[in-house]
């Protein structure tokens, strides 16, 4: 009898311990459309898979809005336990004192299982992971093989020189839009510089300290941006406003444009639009001849654990992060969106699934291959303050050059000057704060 009582008491204590750990947690994210649906599906799957914790996933409409709201909520002590932030906000978050490094909260996770390209962007200079990579993208090269073959192009271009040769053939055959891009900072500066092994700023893009200065106006990236202007004048390249669709992705997806540089995260929309009409190809972003290929940066976003939540909420957050890290969950996100898996074991899981050649996993191998190319101290990532604002500055200035209001070199020099002012302001804001 006493034995039964002891067992009953022990069971009651265990039950009490379990219930004490149960938590309702919030996860804020910034995506819409196909990606938002996939995130909500994962949240529902987590809630259905166990009963100990419940996650409520709250969309904020965009990465920028999510970031602003989270910081404001943190100051008011009304913040969520988990927040998704995009790549450009990394340093701001690291120095905000609003988040705790994920590696400190989950020390037993094999963080080295993350592909180097996804991990490096969110690590401290000393190699500690601050956030768990989540919806990770990188830059890829898309072609409408059907339209290329109509113009007599049977080999998919791999270099910029080959792209322009193909673009001239397409134009000669009557194609109105051979290649399209939107000139976005992430595509034409960050990803271009990374894979060509070029710095965006000194001090290894800020990893070595807050005293960095922008240098992109003096690198080969400046020549590439001038080339885009020249190719646009020649009718080989179109920007958003030049297309009938008014948007470069839509212009490619409708068949208006034959080639495009875009995020791996846009693959599913292109594949769906092409179904039954065109053949789609996707490969690594093009290089200029004579340059050794290096890794592309991880794009998309990662998940941070915010400070100031109780132990039960942190346990719930850990459980949700563990769930999202599972290979089957990463495979689901890749299949649903085109975002790239972030741990090395996922490619094995895809191979064992019997669907390795399925179009739904088309971005997985090429995205991982692109991010796992040889790296240099200048291709770890971007660790620069007020970088969200800098991206806007870069777009404002380069759009003036595309509009013919100033030369591209003048635009880049202006962007460098304005960018350096942001860096100095950030440096003053965090004066005396130790870099992570």
TrEMBL record:
Any one GO CC term of the record: periplasmic space
Keywords: Periplasm, Signal, Transport
Primary localization: periplasm
Taxonomy, superkingdom: Bacteria
Location within or outside the cell: Periplasm
Pfam families the record matches: SBP_bac_8 (PF13416)
Subunit structure: The complex is composed of two ATP-binding proteins (UgpC), two transmembrane proteins (UgpA and UgpE) and a solute-binding protein (UgpB).
Described function: Part of the ABC transporter complex UgpBAEC involved in sn-glycerol-3-phosphate (G3P) import. Binds G3P.
PANTHER family named in the record: ARABINOSE-BINDING PROTEIN-RELATED, SN-GLYCEROL-3-PHOSPHATE-BINDING PERIPLASMIC PROTEIN UGPB
Stated name of the protein: sn-glycerol-3-phosphate-binding periplasmic protein UgpB
């Amino acid at each position: 009898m006493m034995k039964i009582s002891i067992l009953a008491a022990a069971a009651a204590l265990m039950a009490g311990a379990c219930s004490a750990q149960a938590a309702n947690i919030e996860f804020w994210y910034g995506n819409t459309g196909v990606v938002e649906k996939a995130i909500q599906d994962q949240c529902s799957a987590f809630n259905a898979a166990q009963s100990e914790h419940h996650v409520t996933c709250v969309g904020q409409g965009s990465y920028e809005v999510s970031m602003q709201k989270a910081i404001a909520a943190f100051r008011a002590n009304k913040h969520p336990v988990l927040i998704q932030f995009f790549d450009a906000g990394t340093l701001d978050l690291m120095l905000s004192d609003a988040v705790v490094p994920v590696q400190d909260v989950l020390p037993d996770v094999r963080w080295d299982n993350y592909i180097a390209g996804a991990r490096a962007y969110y690590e401290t200079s000393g190699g500690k992971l601050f956030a768990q990579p989540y919806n990770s993208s990188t830059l890829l090269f898309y072609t409408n093989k059907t339209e290329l073959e109509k113009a007599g192009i049977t080999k998919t271009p791999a270099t910029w020189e080959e792209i322009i040769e193909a673009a001239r053939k397409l134009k000669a055959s009557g194609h109105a839009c051979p290649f399209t891009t939107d000139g976005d900072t992430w595509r034409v500066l960050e990803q271009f510089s990374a894979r060509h092994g070029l710095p965006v700023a000194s001090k290894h893009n800020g990893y070595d300290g807050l005293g960095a200065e922008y240098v992109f106006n003096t690198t080969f990236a400046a020549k590439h941006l001038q080339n885009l202007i020249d190719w646009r004048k020649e009718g080989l390249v179109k920007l958003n406003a030049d297309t009938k669709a008014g948007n470069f992705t839509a212009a490619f997806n409708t068949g208006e444009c034959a080639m495009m540089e875009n995020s791996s995260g846009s693959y599913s929309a292109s594949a769906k639009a092409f179904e039954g009409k065109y053949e789609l190809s996707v490969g690594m972003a093009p290089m200029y001849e004579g340059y050794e290929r290096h890794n592309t940066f991880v794009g998309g976003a990662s998940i941070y654990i915010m400070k100031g939540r109780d132990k039960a909420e942190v346990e719930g957050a850990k459980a949700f992060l563990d769930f999202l890290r599972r290979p089957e969950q990463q495979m689901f996100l890749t299949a649903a969106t085109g975002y790239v898996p972030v741990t090395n074991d996922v490619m094995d899981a895809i191979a064992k699934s019997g669907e390795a050649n399925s179009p739904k996993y088309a971005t997985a191998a090429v995205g991982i291959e692109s991010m796992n190319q040889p790296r240099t101290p200048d291709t770890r990532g971007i660790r620069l303050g007020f970088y969200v604002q800098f991206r806007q500055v870069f777009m404002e200035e380069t759009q003036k050059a595309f509009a013919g209001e100033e030369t591209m070199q003048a635009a880049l020099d202006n962007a460098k000057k304005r960018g350096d002012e942001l860096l100095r302001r950030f440096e003053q804001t965090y004066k005396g704060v130790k870099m992570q």
